[in-house]
Amino acid sequence: METLIRAVHTRHNWQEVFEDPLFRDAFIEEWVPQYITKRRWFAGKSTPVKVFKIERILPLPTDFGYYYHIIVEVVYEPGYTETYLLPLSFVTILPKEDDIKILGKCVIEGTEGFLVEAVYLEDYRNALFNHMIKSSKIGIGADNFFLFERGKVMTENEGDKISSELLNVEQSNTSIIYNNKYILKIYRKLFMDHNPDHELVRFLSDQAGFTHSPKYGGSVSWVRSGNFMVSIALMTELIPNQGEGWDYMLKKIESAFDNFLNSDLKISELPKLKYLRKMKASSIPDQYSVLIGEEFLDNIEMLAKRTAQMHVALASNKIDRHFVPRSYNSDFSVWLKNRLIYIFENRYNMLESNLHKLEGDGLEYAHEFISHKSDIIKHFLSFDELKLNSKRIRIHGDYHLGQVLLADNDFFILDYEGEPESTIRDRKVKQSPLKDVAGIFRSFHYAIYATLFKKKKYQDSQNECSLLGSKLFRVITNVFLDKYCRVAFKNNLDIGYSQEIKYLLKYHLLEKAVYELGYELNARPDWAIIPLKGIMQILNVEENEK
Ligand SMILES: Nc1ncnc2c1ncn2[C@@H]1O[C@H](COP(=O)(O)OP(=O)(O)O)[C@@H](O)[C@H]1O
Ligand SMILES: O=P(O)(O)O[C@H]1O[C@H](CO)[C@@H](O[C@H]2O[C@H](CO)[C@@H](O)[C@H](O)[C@H]2O)[C@H](O)[C@H]1O
C-alpha cells in the first residue's frame, strides 16, 4: 500500500462530495499528483507538470454503487496537455486484494473510508459488464451520457453470472477479464474523440471480416453534446494464446545465438544476404535454417500473412471516407516532413541532455547520432510524393511484437490505438501500410539486440553475435517481406513495386527508430542503445548501397 497523505473531513455526502472545495482541492492538488505520476499508464513521467486540473466529473450511478469517472487534465510546463481517466469509488472497508490502489483517506459525513480506484472493486467491474449487456444509456446531464454498446458476440444471459479479474500484465491502460471470455480495456489516456482502437477493432471485426484481430464485444463511450463520442472502454473477445510475439521471438533468437556458439560454424562461412530483398523461406540457406529452425521461419511467414491480411481488410472499404485508400499528395508530404523534423529535433535535444545517462557503446552511438544530424534531416526531407504510385490506408500505427499474440503457430493482432505520442488526428491519417511493416522489422531488430545487450552470457562474444544478429535480421525480414508482398499482391493491396516498397520501408524504418529513441529515453534509458544501434545500421546500409 502506498503512503497516504492527511485524511480529509467533509460534511457532504458521497454523491455531492466534489462540491466541497476542501475535498476537491485535496483531490486535485495532493492526491491526484501523488497517485497518477506513479502509474505505468502515465506517459508524462519525464516532463515537469505545471498543474493538474479536473476537466470533468462524470458520475455513474448503478445498482451496484455510485461511482465517478474523473477526467483529469495534465498541463505540462512546455505548454501541451493530456487527459487521463480515473474511475473512483469510496469504501469503508478495503477489499482483500493487496494491490488495491488508494488515492486518499477521507471522512464522509462522519464515516471514515478510502477513495480508491474503482477498477479494483468487483461491484464496479460487474456494474460495467451489466450495463454493457443491457446496452444502457446513463444520463449525466443534458445531452451528456454514458453509452454502453453490446457487440454481436455477447448474449443477454451472459450477465447472469459474472466473474471478473484485473489483467496482470505490463500495459498502457487497465484491462479486466470477464467470465474468462472477454477482456475490457479501460482507456487511461483519453482523447476527446473516438479512439482508433475502438474504431478499427469494430471495423475489422464487424465489417471487414478480418479473423485475426479480437472480435468486437462492445464499448463504453461518453457522448457529449452534439453527439461527440469519447471512447472510455473497449470490450473484445479473449483469445486463448501462448503469449506475446515478443516473448516468442526472444526465445527463438536466444536459441539461435546458443546454437551458433555451440557449433563449429564461423561467421565468415555464413552466406551473405541482401538487405530488404524478398526471399522465400524455402530458399534460405541451410546454415541459417539449422540455427533458427524451420518452424520459426514458418511462423514468420504466418505473421507476414496476417499482417498483410490486416492491411487488406483496412483497405477494403471504398465508400466510408474514414477508410477509403488515398493517393500521396503534397499536403500529406508536408504533414509527414513537418512531423518527422519535429520528432527528430525533439530526440536530438533529448539525447544531448541525457548523454550523462549513457555509457560505453550506447554513448558512442549517441555521439554518432549527433554527428549524423544533417543526414537524418536530409533523409526525412527527401520524401517525394511524385515518386509514389501506391496508396495510403488506415494502419495499425504502433505495430510491434508486443501487439501480437501467438496462438497455436498463428498470430492475432491487438491494440490499434496508434503511436502513443501522436495526437488523435495524426493517428487517423492514412499512411503507407509499409510503416507497420517497418514497425515489426524494428521489433525483430529489438529482439536481436535486446538479447545480445541484456544477456550476460553473450558478453564475451558480443562482436560475433552482433554480426550474426545483423545476418539473422536479414533472414527474418526478407522472409517476412516475401510472404507479405505475395499476400498483398494477390489481394490487390496497392503497396507499389519493388523500388517503391524498398524506398518506403527504408524511410519508415528510420522514422520508427527515431521515434523509439524518444520512447526509450523517456521510459527506460538503458534501452536507448537499441534504437541508436538501429539508426546507425540503417544509415550505414544506405551509405554502403550508394
Ligand atoms: N483479446 C485479447 N485476448 C487475450 N489477451 C489480450 C487481448 N487483448 C489484450 N490482451 C492482453 O493484454 C495485453 C495488453 O493489451 P493491449 O491492447 O496492448 O493494452 P495496452 O494498450 O494497455 O498496452 C496484451 O499484450 C495481451 O497480453
Ligand atoms: O505500450 P505500447 O504497446 O503502446 O508501445 C510502446 O511501448 C513499447 C514497449 O513496451 C515500445 O516498443 C519498443 O520496445 C519493444 C520491446 O519492448 C519492441 O518490440 C518495439 O519494436 C519497440 O518499438 C513502443 O515503441 C511504444 O510505442
From TrEMBL:
It comes from the Bacteria. It is an enzyme of class 2 (transferase). Pfam families: Mak_N_cap (PF18085). One of its GO terms (molecular function) is transferase activity. Residues 35-118 form the Maltokinase N-terminal cap domain. It catalyses: D-maltose + ATP = alpha-maltose 1-phosphate + ADP + H(+). Its EC number is 2.7.1.175. Keywords: ATP-binding, Nucleotide-binding, Transferase. Belongs to the aminoglycoside phosphotransferase family. This is Maltokinase. It comes from Marinigracilibium pacificum. The lineage of its organism: Bacteria, Pseudomonadati, Bacteroidota, Cytophagia, Cytophagales.
